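ok so heres the complex, two chains, lmk if somethin looks off
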Amino acid sequence: MTTFKEFQAKYTPIINDFLEGQLAKESDDPRFAEIMAYSVMAGGKRLRPLLFLATLDALGVEITEKEVQAACGIELIHTYSLIHDDLPAMDNDDYRRGELTSHKKWGEAEAILAGDALQPLGIQWIAQAEHNWKLVEIITEAVGPKGMVAGQYLDIDTTNNEDSSEEVIDHMEWLKTGCLILASVQMATALAACPDQQAQKYLAFAKHFGRSYQLYDDLVDIVESQEEAGKATHKDQEVGKNNSLTMLGAEATRNELKQLIEKGKADLAGEKAEVLLGFLDLYQKVL
Amino acid sequence: MTTFKEFQAKYTPIINDFLEGQLAKESDDPRFAEIMAYSVMAGGKRLRPLLFLATLDALGVEITEKEVQAACGIELIHTYSLIHDDLPAMDNDDYRRGELTSHKKWGEAEAILAGDALQPLGIQWIAQAEHNWKLVEIITEAVGPKGMVAGQYLDIDTTNNEDSSEEVIDHMEWLKTGCLILASVQMATALAACPDQQAQKYLAFAKHFGRSYQLYDDLVDIVESQEEAGKATHKDQEVGKNNSLTMLGAEATRNELKQLIEKGKADLAGEKAEVLLGFLDLYQKVL
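and the predicted structre for the whole thing:
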């Protein structure tokens, strides 16, 4: 039985190698290739591609290079969203993962264009890997105007808006983070073509995991020092940003996180999904 | 025999109705839907969707609502590129098609996000319309880091750079404008599944048309008054922007345009492509 840590240790370097090797071939302009690679290779946890691959694994789908390519497509799209979220017109962040953000390092136009390029390239990798339009439908719906972008729009809209209800904040956080996490699992269930009843278990898990991941991310913001997190922490409250944590407080957020972990475990009862369940252990450091 | 003008008169309102009706359903936030629709419905010529539909027509493919949806997907992607090109960090334009640009009207973050949303939504419409991953491959390659975005990157890189050779400028203009025009025709040949030899004729036409369209656009910049063009004209030279026209001069540009028109006609000799050939008549006003 593979554990989450073993799975992560095996596939993280495979994902990183694919990203680095393939990205270098995707532009005829060495500097533009460098700008894209700068943010993609800045050392993320590769959570979404690992989630996609771990779901495939649980469903008995063999992981070959094309599954790795599709997984990496998700990571490109995630990276685009980080680059654009950091822009001066958005969150105006100078650091990300301990390094200068794209616009601070390369310039604002360059950062906008790197994001604009990574989004369709990620979709292209997914389409070319699996020759399956359904995966394209899932990913584009997840990141489009009823998904991730809508979350970022609401985030801008709710900043410094004290009337924002807890419901609005929950919805905003779901769109910003949950949609792409859910899509990573949903793409795997679509590819595995598993029975609908079985797919529903994984989608339920993905929804609970997506929600819990946002709470975890908010808690990291207050628990870790700036150096550990590699970005500006304690910042959300300063700039008047509302999130579940600023609405509920740390204690209630931790309790909700614990409940979501239990729900996630229950969702996958009876499935051979030890690796997926291991994702929930990530949260130990904020509990 | 349908003429270009008849085809245009029939399908332009169909395209506009689809765009307006469908876009309103694509966001749960009325203001964000309005921001997207503002730029999409600002009155473009719908050149790319018409080119896609006219190629289908020439190849004997019946045009139903799903072909209109795929055509409109191309227009969403084109609109995203206009919104981002106008941003302060890029061309910093205040007007487009006679109206305030998106960031002047709604704010910079809003404009970035409207573009970020229209790009995947356009791809989604294409994927959902035809259930064909090949179309997704064609469109994502055309707008990604070896296509349209690379052109915009080169454009920023070459502005005020007097060393830029004519070759670099040609390449930049091809990427910025030609790639998406070629993709509009290529998606139609892929959908029609016509013999490769026949497809090659249409792709050759698309390449000549794509190149000629950029020359036309540069000539409009000096021929029309600002009021007629609906955007700032005579601007390229002022801001030190290199294009074929500033490199070659107006007379040589007109001559090249005339030659490209003849080549485009020759490409489609023997095909029932009267509507497509009619696109070349657009250029009369600058000749």
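quick notes: Chain A has a mean pLDDT of 92. thats all i got rn
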